[in-house]
Design goal:
single chain, about 300 residues, alpha/beta, Rossmann fold, 7-stranded parallel sheet, 12 helices, 14 strands, about 40% helix, about 20% strand
């Protein structure tokens, strides 16, 4: 079965690793959000793409929640000694990935081509694609003024209250042709359990028209009123959106026909079904790759016929 997974860098990346465990080589394509890409020290950094790459390669740093396991930070320390901003923590092995990507882009490669080549160099059995080769950047209106995504999330530690969101460049951006092809060829499209506002909606703005609702499954990123990681709940609430699993289901009602609820929110099943979904209740927490694989298999077993 061919699966196209739309993913951000936390829950979506975890689920990608689970799908890779249960699918045959070459059956999984992950289309990652690039609206939180950023330039650091002249290097192109793709945090969500890299989180997926590193998890699929088995080198993700679980201790820090970003980057590569057992990394060192000598380059970062030297940057700080030289007076360069060092609030965006990039490890030495992580840095090498950004150097390689930036060199490929400087030679004329598209971002998609650079992602595919990095996946090849990591020896992945799955394909990782960016949502677009064109720049799209998430900006927040906050009570402290406008902030780019990484300034808000990393430098300010998601402390400012968000009052609005903009995906700068999305009107002119085109989806990656390879991503469109992957979604069209997929037997199953899965919206991963990532932050709807910053990780999923940019991808759907570009690729939503290519998704067949009858073959699309969405997985909740909210369990018992809390997110796996990050300010998903607070962000949705401040934007006037319902930050519950039911609220997320309503966000995806036009694009997905199956919704995966966590067992802690099983009481919401009738309300979600009333929104036009078939509901699957499962353990959506993924503390390790085995749990992610169990969730992936549950989704496959419950997937609508192609």
């Amino acid at each position: 079965m061919k699966v196209a997974l739309l993913a951000g860098g936390t829950g979506g990346a975890k689920l990608a690793a689970g799908f890779q465990e249960v699918l045959a080589a070459g059956e999984l394509t992950v289309i990652a959000n690039t609206a939180d890409d950023v330039e650091v020290w002249g290097l192109h950094v793709s945090p969500d793409v890299d989180a997926v790459l590193f998890r699929l390669a088995g080198v993700f740093n679980e201790a820090t929640g970003f980057g590569i396991a057992d990394d060192t930070f000598q380059a970062l320390a030297q940057m700080e000694r030289l007076g360069l901003p060092a609030w965006f923590r990039i490890g030495d092995r992580d840095l090498a990935v950004h150097v390689a990507r930036t060199q490929m882009l400087a030679r004329g490669c598209r971002l998609t081509e650079a992602c595919v080549e990095l996946g090849r160099r990591f020896g992945l059995a799955s394909l990782v694609l960016p949502m677009s080769d064109d720049p799209v950047r998430t900006w927040f209106a906050t009570h402290r003024g406008p902030l780019a995504f990484q300034d808000y999330y990393v430098r300010e530690r998601a402390a400012p209250r968000v009052t609005g969101v903009e995906y700068a460049g999305i009107e002119a951006a085109r989806p990656s042709p390879e991503a469109v092809l992957a979604v069209g060829a997929a037997d199953l499209v899965v919206i991963g359990p990532s932050n709807p506002v910053v990780s999923v909606w940019p991808v759907l703005r570009l690729l939503g028209a290519a998704v067949r609702r009858e073959s699309c499954v969405a997985v909740t990123p909210v369990v018992a009123g809390a997110a796996l990681k990050g300010p998903t709940v607070e962000m949705m609430r401040s934007l006037g959106r319902d930050p519950s699993a039911l609220g997320v289901a309503r966000e995806y009602a036009e694009v997905a026909s199956v919704f995966v609820l966590d067992q802690a929110d099983a009481g919401d099943q009738p309300a979600v079904e009333a929104g036009g979904y078939r509901v699957v209740v499962a353990d959506t927490l993924m503390p390790d790759v085995r749990a992610a694989a169990r969730l992936a298999q549950t989704i496959l077993d419950a997937s609508p016929p192609s």
